[in-house]
Amino acid sequence: MAKELTVGIAGLGAIGLHLARALDQGVEGLKLVAVSAKDQAKATANLAGFRAKPALVPLAELAALADIVVEAAPAAVFEEVATAAITRGRIFVPSSVGALLPRMQLVDLARKTGARIVVPTGALLGLDAVRAAAEGTVSTVTIETRKPPGGLAGAPYLEINKVDLTAVDKPLLVFKGNAFDAAQGFPANVNVAAALALAGIGPERTMVEIWADPTVTRNTHTIRVEADEVRLTMTIENVPSLENPRTGKITPLSILACLRGLTSTLKVGS
Ligand SMILES: NC(=O)C1=CN([C@@H]2O[C@H](COP(=O)(O)OP(=O)(O)OC[C@H]3O[C@@H](n4cnc5c(N)ncnc54)[C@H](O)[C@@H]3O)[C@@H](O)[C@H]2O)C=CC1
Ligand SMILES: O=C([O-])CC(=O)C(=O)O
Q1: Is 94 touching ligand 2 by the criterion CB < 6 Å?
Q2: Is the CB of 46 under 6 A from ligand 1?
Q3: pLDDT block averages, 10 residues each, the chain of length 270
Q4: Whose atoms come closest to the Cα of 192: which ligand?
Q5: 18 catalytic residue (yes or no)
Q6: How close are the terminal C-alpha atoms of the chain, in Å?
Q7: pTM of the shown model
Q8: Which member of 21, 71, 91, 186 has the greatest number of CB atoms within 10 A?
């Protein structure tokens, strides 16, 4: 039988709490042992009904307790969680994937420590096909993201450029550029573009459009890949989560599926 892996989760919000609850229900091969939260009282209340209560520890201590460290916190604390996990040689599963792009030295560190960085598909789709295409010759990769204007509120790029979305009544293109710049300008909104870039042809060549679109109720991402061997066109329409409308409800489910793939005997998809 495959070895059971212990899991620690940084952040108990839209992603982390759902993932923690699912793990607590029992998932073969995985055991939730530790979580980290900003609001200790809220976290204690959220964990009250758990069958097996995980330890509530500071961010940097997750890596001491768990084989797998899932980061599900704001991008601002990404480096702290990532560095602790990778230094200890753990399996690090980031949600704030955009924060990885300017910190690719963490991949070199992981090479030295034996850690693995496993980027989940998250709120996106089709990264298996994009990775396969990238083994051949890819000419272009684009992603078009459409979110209800409220799902983009607070993005640094909008604040710096003084873009006010409160009165938007028709689709507005708010950003066009590469995935690296998109991730810097919209750290809480386009982690999907960062994951796509890492799966395919990198953050400089992966092109991103972000639309504030009052005609959509779902966070919608369309990927287009043109390669010698294949053409891909794929769309995902995510139901925004109640806790954080920027985050689609599929995200914790995708991370759970990713974690299962780390231990399961039968694994489907590349
Ligand atoms: N990879 C993907 O496809 C997706 C990634 N994301 C990203 O995942 C991350 C988490 O997203 P959500 O769960 O929706 O965010 P959220 O805001 O609902 O939850 C984050 C949690 O982290 C907690 N937190 C903040 N500072 C902390 C600290 N110092 N220590 C411990 N906990 C702390 C907050 O209190 C909150 O409970 C974000 O960076 C988000 O942009 C979101 C959606 C899709
Ligand atoms: O669509 C979503 O659920 C979230 C999203 O775009 C991201 O953070 O990349």
Answers
A1: no
A2: no
A3: 90 98 97 98 97 97 98 97 98 98 98 98 98 98 96 94 94 98 95 98 98 97 98 97 93 98 92
A4: 2
A5: no
A6: 22
A7: 0.97
A8: 71
